[in-house]
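User: I've been trying to design a sequence by hand for this structure and keep getting stuck. Would you show me what you'd pick, starting by listing the structure so we're on the same page?

Assistant: Good idea, let's start from the same input. This is the structure you sent:
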């Protein structure tokens, strides 16, 4: 009888162990609907945040477009051209290429001449890209382009107090 009782006890322990494992297994597997809701929440949040970032860039570029000529232009309050020429001379004196200069102070003005038209062009391109991002085109290329264009304006304006 003991053997039967021991066998019965081990069977019940085994059943208990199996049922416990099943419970643990069920708890580890998340519900498909919960995962879909979490994923949808993430996607919606990502779209909203990137569109809001596009709106911030839009107003920053719009402000730059409206004010850069008077502030940083050739006849502005604090022209940016002397500062960029100084950066280019320092880079050339150190034996660096334009790429080296770009890596030290990222700006499209290592390749474009700085003028009122180029300041307006960079700001207008930024407004256009930011508008596309606000409308839903928020690719990594668009984000990198906005960063580079705005950083170009900030780098050009480092010699002044307007962007500090």
């Amino acid at each position: 009888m003991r053997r039967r009782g021991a066998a019965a006890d081990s069977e019940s322990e085994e059943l208990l162990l199996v049922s416990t494992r099943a419970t643990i297994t069920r708890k580890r597997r998340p519900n498909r609907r919960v995962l879909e809701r979490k994923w949808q929440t993430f996607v919606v949040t990502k779209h909203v945040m990137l569109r809001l970032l596009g709106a911030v860039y839009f107003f920053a570029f719009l402000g730059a477009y409206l004010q850069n000529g008077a502030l940083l232009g050739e006849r502005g309050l604090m022209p940016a051209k002397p500062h960029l020429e100084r950066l280019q001379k320092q880079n050339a004196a150190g034996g660096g290429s334009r790429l080296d200069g770009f890596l030290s102070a990222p700006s499209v003005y290592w390749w474009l001449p700085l003028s009122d038209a180029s300041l307006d062009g960079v700001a207008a391109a930024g407004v256009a890209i930011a508008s596309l991002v606000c409308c839903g085109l928020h690719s990594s290329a668009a984000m990198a382009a906005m960063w580079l264009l705005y950083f170009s304006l900030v780098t050009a304006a480092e010699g002044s107090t307007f962007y500090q």
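That's my pick for every position. To get oriented when you compare it with your attempt: The first helix runs from residue 2 to 28. The helical segments are 2-28, 32-71, 81-93, 98-104, 116-134, 140-156.
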